Amino acid sequence: MQHKDIWRGLDLLAAHNGLSASGLARRAGLDPTSFNPSKREGPDGRPRWPTTESLARVLDAVGAGFDDFAALVEGRRGGSAPLIGFAQAGRDGYFDDAGFPAGAGWDEVRFPGLGTETVYALQISGDSMEPAYRAGDRIIVAPGADVKPGDRVVAKTSQGEVMAKVLARRNSRLIELASLNPDYPSREFKPSEIAWIARILWASQ
Q1: Alpha carbons 53 and 51: distance in angstroms, whole number
Q2: Rounded Cα gap, residues 142 and 110, in angstroms
Q3: pTM for this one?
Q4: pLDDT (tens digit, 9 = 90+) per residue, 54-88?
Q5: Rounded Cα gap, residues 10 and 37, in angstroms
Q6: Taking 70 as the threshold, does the pLDDT of residue 42 lie above it?
Q7: C-alpha to C-alpha distance for 100 and 135, rounded to whole angstroms
Q8: Which residues of 101-151 form beta strands (DSSP E)?
Q9: Class of the CATH-defined domain 79-204
Q10: Which CATH code fits 3-73?
């Protein structure tokens, strides 16, 4: 991020919360003139940067994270994604037939740069995908994204089992799902035994 990007991000953060730059500074307990245009350059024309403390205070004041701020700077849309744990994911009612989130009982998790794609979050349990994903990590899943061999995916079987795996092979006769942890062997399924497969886009450790 360059000097102009940081200041543009602060202006956008203020606007998204119905505030002026001065109002944003005031809400964060800063001098109301802290973010004025006149404070963005020194008398000699050299750029002045907001301090990390002032940036942290304004983000806290409006309930945003740095990932939300980065999304604003880069022109991406931040927002929330529905979240459930793997134990819930295996029950009926949480997904439609294509693997999209459905029903009630979902929590929410902040996620930057959602764009227009429908995504949801799952909280990892177990250790079959260590070291990439550990128990408690949250993964963002896109059921509408194209899936190809080598992708990290979430799959749900027709029996209701939900698992995070690597798509090793997929053809008209079988689907092979591999674990990153060598202690867990690959598993093979007939295509009819898999309800849906969705690609993992992102993980939060």
Answers
A1: 5
A2: 15
A3: 0.60
A4: 999 998 887 777 777 877 777 655 566 788 888 78
A5: 12
A6: yes
A7: 23
A8: 107-111, 120-123, 138-142
A9: mainly beta
A10: 1.10.260.40
